[in-house]
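User: Just a sanity check before I run the rest of the batch. Below are the structure tokens for the first item. I only need the designed sequence back.
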């Protein structure tokens, strides 16, 4: 038995409480820790977490809508996915304690070429493959006490209708046009890249390749006829939005990164793929030979959960997003531009966090260093792992994960502090 679990058992014996009662006590401590975490991130990043509904700055004062990214189902969940969910869960619970009516959305992103390829490699049809992996995310979140109110899958019919409506609005307003795209594309990132965003490299066999400067993933040259979004027209509006709302993207480090991107020209963005290359996705309305770009599809999920296209304003006016730094551009540049084009208000804030690494390296299946959050939550308990992530995570700096760090923190702050404080409490009753 680990020292951590030994101390917990010792604490239960001192207080003469059942395992279920002690679990509730530890969970309450986790909630109280969430309050401290809320104060911490509020002071570091100006999250404005302490306001009551009557003083909240959003137009819809009594409501709070927080989202995680929807997670890509090409692989099982890792500790970084749980970190996003725990942060959003903390904010959701905190706002509920402050008297808000809060909605908390999470889910899975299930379309795109990467999913199509992963399903083929697994010998499964795409929907069955997506369902299997999506259930792993749902199981992790339930076992980790993630108190989401909505779980969305982009393969759902309600989401398909929302995406089709959103596309039609953009097209009818003239912001989407048929054109030809020629340039670099990263399948692992599902991202179109300019020449300045790629660099020369070599594969494992020494063959020259091009890679994304941001992710390091290999890119391929692509030339095809598809639909383009007039992103170039929105650079002035995006700059104005950020300059007038310096707290729209937080922490400040990521706000400055978004501003820096806008110092350069924004090329129009390809928002579809030819159907013969990408079958697994939502067809373009009126053009079944094209598939809607996975990121346009995925981003609309936030509106879908709010009730788009009808009756969504109540929740949407209170929307905030929690995202990882690797998808900042999609949320701080592309998504606001899409919303501006559609005439939909922008989210109240975008909260960005950094990554968990292992020995200073990004987690990767190829490196074999992916930390399984379900396994760790069973080893350290759900509350123990939640506590560690909130206590040790730093939003604007990557953090290194290793098991000894978890054990030392839980022994020091939970087992020793909580366990030690329980004996005087027991003695005071006698």
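Assistant: Here's the designed sequence for the first item:
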């Amino acid at each position: 038995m680990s020292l951590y679990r030994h101390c917990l058992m010792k604490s239960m014996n001192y207080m003469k409480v059942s395992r279920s009662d002690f679990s509730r006590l530890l969970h309450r401590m986790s909630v109280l820790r969430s309050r401290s975490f809320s104060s911490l991130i509020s002071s570091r990043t100006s999250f404005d977490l302490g306001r009551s509904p009557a003083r909240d700055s959003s137009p819809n004062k009594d409501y709070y809508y927080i989202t995680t990214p929807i997670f890509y189902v090409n692989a099982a969940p890792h500790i970084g996915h749980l970190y996003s969910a725990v942060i959003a869960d903390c904010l959701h619970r905190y706002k509920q304690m402050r008297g808000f009516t809060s909605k908390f959305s999470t889910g899975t992103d299930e379309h795109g070429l990467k999913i199509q390829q992963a399903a083929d490699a697994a010998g499964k049809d795409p929907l069955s493959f997506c369902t299997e992996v999506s259930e792993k995310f749902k199981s992790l979140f339930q076992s980790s006490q993630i108190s989401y109110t909505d779980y969305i899958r982009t393969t759902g019919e309600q989401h398909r209708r929302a995406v089709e409506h959103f596309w039609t609005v953009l097209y009818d307003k003239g912001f989407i046009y048929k054109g030809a795209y020629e340039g670099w594309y990263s399948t692992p990132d599902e991202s179109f890249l300019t020449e300045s965003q790629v660099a020369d490299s070599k594969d494992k066999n020494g063959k020259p390749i091009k890679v994304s400067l941001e992710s390091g993933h290999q890119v391929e040259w692509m030339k095809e006829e598809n639909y383009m979004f007039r992103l170039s027209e929105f650079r002035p509006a995006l700059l104005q939005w950020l300059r007038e709302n310096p707290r729209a993207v937080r922490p400040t480090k990521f706000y400055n990164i978004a501003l820096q991107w806008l110092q350069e020209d924004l090329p129009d963005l390809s928002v579809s793929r030819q159907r013969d290359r990408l079958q697994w996705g939502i067809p373009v309305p009126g053009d079944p030979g094209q598939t809607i770009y996975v990121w346009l599809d995925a981003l609309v999920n936030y509106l879908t959960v709010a009730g788009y296209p009808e009756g969504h304003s109540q929740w949407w006016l209170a929307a905030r997003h929690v995202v990882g730094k690797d998808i900042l551009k999609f949320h701080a540049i592309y998504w606001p531009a899409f919303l501006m084009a559609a005439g939909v208000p922008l989210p109240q804030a975008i909260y960005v966090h950094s990554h968990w690494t292992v020995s200073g390296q990004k987690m990767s299946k190829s490196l074999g260093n992916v930390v399984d959050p379900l396994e760790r939550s069973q080893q350290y308990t759900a509350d123990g792992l939640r506590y560690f992530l909130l206590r040790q995570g730093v939003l604007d700096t990557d953090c290194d994960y290793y098991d000894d760090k978890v054990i030392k923190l839980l022994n020091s702050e939970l087992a020793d502090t909580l366990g030690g404080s329980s004996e005087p409490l027991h003695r005071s009753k006698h």
